[in-house]
Amino acid sequence: MKTTNIKKPRTPTLFESLFPILSMVILLGGGYAAFDLPPEPLMVLSTVIAGLLVKRLGYSYSEIMGSISQKIAKTMPALLILISVGLLIGTWMIGGTIPLMIYYGLKMISPAMLYVTALLVTSLVSVCTGTSWGSAGTIGVAFMGVAMGMDANLAATAGAVVAGAYFGDKLSPLSGDTNLAALAAQVDLYEHMWHLLYTTLPSLILTAIVMTVYGMNSDLGAESVPDRITLITDSLYNVYSFNLLLLLPVAIVIYGSITKKPTIPVMLVSALVAMLNAYFIQDFALPQIIKSAVDGFNVSMIDGEVPAIIHNLLNRGGMNSMMGTLLICFCALSFAGTLALSGALEVIVHSLLKLVHSTGTMILATITCGLTMIGVTCNGQISILIPIEMLRNAYIERGLHPKNLSRTVEDSATIFEPILPWTAAGAYMAGTLGVATLSYLPWAVLCWSGIFFAMFWGFTGIGIAKLTKEEQAEMLAQSNIDLTTDKA
């Protein structure tokens, strides 16, 4: 009887394991950062390179596709949350919820406290809208106009705007990056957001102290609020009918966060209430409301002439606005799924973790990965997905909750991106605010202080969430990890 020898797939060497990741870094660093090529085809090419490695190791094409499908299937609920975020922004905009918060945020402005007001109001707007770029490009630009009119320090004002914008980007349920980090770490969105407070809130307080002390020593108290701010607030007041019912969609999301209700149903209920507000209070037609939910709100839906200054403030949201982020997610997940099949990530992580001997060094290694990825790839989404994909299992094996990982990656990738001049975020902020990235960098305290708070908590153990034996066993089973495996 003839015996058929079936060749078993082998474990990759360290060089083979690093090759696909280094290829991805080179492709994104050279193609995306240097030549402004779109990242999606570069990620697809990286996936092809990873696929060739996996074939070399002895895996079949069907096994590769199965691994990719499994990876996407696990993250599908979180991907649906991203689409819900777009729905929420579009409905909150046409229903008047976001404009109401922007209106009263700008009404709070005090010339004597310009810098800290810029920080706090931009933070509020960014939390409400979930977009750092949108906040900086609207309210941020308005504050820069205030600073120019008062002959204030433009670098300090820009730093306050950038810090505030990225505070909201991290702590808004509408933020694509915040949802993405929770998605990648397989952590509940609100649980991830609450855990972010350990590093983000101290950073915000530190930034506010710096801005307050600096502002109190500057002579801005006699200046008046410029016409630019008045024009924005008057325009919003004329376009929308404001009342407390417009805050009901926000209350629903806050209630869902506190009570830990399922994210998607909470968002859908909030969006429905916002649509009712748009119909009964703002007097928009049903087709306009549906279009805003799908394609985003547009000022063309408003009867009468609307000042150009608020176009960029209001034109946003809609489920289709998340399609670009979803495409990057699918490309990155395809790469991660292919690489996961090969066992390359385990080889790399086990080599890296030879230097890790404590929770503190684990956090430090995570920060190093995050800073390296954002510095080289210049892409926030990829800089979130890849480090979390590489390190999640290592955290679980050490009894550390994955929300420690998602928080630390955000501290070292999401929030660090706008203070690097060569990234898209750094270039956007500098161009939009009219201040060079390196000029506002020292003032954007929140953007660089988070990594120091992360390391402090890591080495002291404060604010580090541990897994119970039951939680660890469940996560290990889901990830197919064997605790008896040598962790090196």
Structural notes for this entry:
The protein is mainly alpha-helical and 488 residues long. The two termini are 43 Å apart. The protein has a domain at 78-322. Mean pLDDT is 82; it is low at 482-488. Helix content is 72%, strand content 0%. 53% of the residues are buried. One of its GO terms (cellular component) is plasma membrane. The chain crosses the membrane at residues 12-35, 41-58, 79-106, 112-134, 141-167, 196-216, 237-258, 264-281, 326-349, 361-388, 419-437, 443-465. Residues 164-462 form the Na+/H+ antiporter NhaC-like C-terminal domain.
User: Helix and strand string, N-terminal first?
Assistant: HHHHHHHHHHHHHHHHHHHHHHH
Uncertain segments are: 482-488
Q: Give the end-to-end Cα distance, rounded to a whole number of Å.
A: 43 Å
Give the percentage of residues in beta strands. Answer: under 5%
InterPro entries: Na/H_antiport_NhaC, Na/H_Antiport_NhaC-like_C, NhaC_Na-H+_Antiporter
Protein name: Na+/H+ antiporter NhaC
Keywords: Antiport, Cell membrane, Membrane, Transmembrane, Transmembrane helix, Transport
Membrane topology: Multi-pass membrane protein
